[in-house]
Structures are given as structure tokens and as C-alpha cells.
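Quick illustration, no need to memorize.
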Amino acid sequence: MSHQAADQELTILGKVTTAFGIKGWVKVYSYTDPMTNILDYPNWLLNIGGEWKTFRVKDSQVHSKGLAVALDGINDRDAALALSQVEIAVPTSELPELEDDEYYWFQLQGLKVVNTHGEWLGQVKELLDSGGGNQVMVINACEGSIDRQQRLIPYAETIVLKVDTEQGEILVDWEADF
């Protein structure tokens, strides 16, 4: 997801889920792959009450079910609990440059999906990692789509023929009745 804060575009990288322990650490659910890539950014923007506030990552630990992170200024369990379900973002300008035919997932969300027959299948709601390095686009019906059906379409080179972010469209080799 992409948001504006103080005249800069932001990208959501994860969220704080709840407190971790009694010393102000928080549990973090990372949208990055691998999950530890969120730790590459030393300063996070947290959306608290609709306002983005900057926090420096002091320390972190990897656990089997996710990450535990210590943030500057969050020193007790109550302060950590107050951050529950808060989104974590960084300025989009800080993300690594991609190759020409590569995209961040947030760039694909909201694009309309059209098949080779010119049928509008819907709009990308989200992308899922189905394991083994396979990604799947969740396509929701929307105004103008051929039906009201939700579709799961693999994000694979043989299926996704063209992504045009300027036109807001993805061309797929996928039949409407699959």
C-alpha cells in the first residue's frame, strides 16, 4: 500500500501486532520477503491516530512466529500495547530500485486485470505468497468486470503477459471460466 505523509509517498512494510514482554518490545508482522528485510530500515513511520510518527529501531530478535522489536521511546508494556495493530511504513524513495520488469506488490494492488480476449476480470485486491516462491493475485470483481466472481490467478511469467502501471492494467493469459 502506498500513502502520503508530509509530502512524501510511503510504503507499508508491516504492522505492530501487540506487546512482547514487559520492557516495551513489540511483536511485528512483516510484509517483506524475507520477513527480516523490514529490519533493513533503521527508522519506521508508525500510523498513530491517523498521523505518521517516526521511531528508531533500537534492537530486534527473530522468533519462530515473527519478529520482536525494541523502538526508541517505547519503554514499557503499556506503551507497547498502545501500538497494537499500527501500520509500519517507510518512504517509498528508500526502497531498493527494481529491474525494469519487476514490481513491488503494492504497485500491483488496484490494477485492473484483462485477459487476452479483452475481458475485464476484475481488480487486484492483494497478492499472496502460496509457498515455494509462488505468488497469487486475488482478483475481486468490480464495476465493469465481466461477472461478480473473485479469482485467484498465479503471478507467473506464462500467465502475466504484461504489467502497465501507467495504464493501470495487467494483461493475463487466463480464461474467464477458470
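The longest strand covers residues 8-20.
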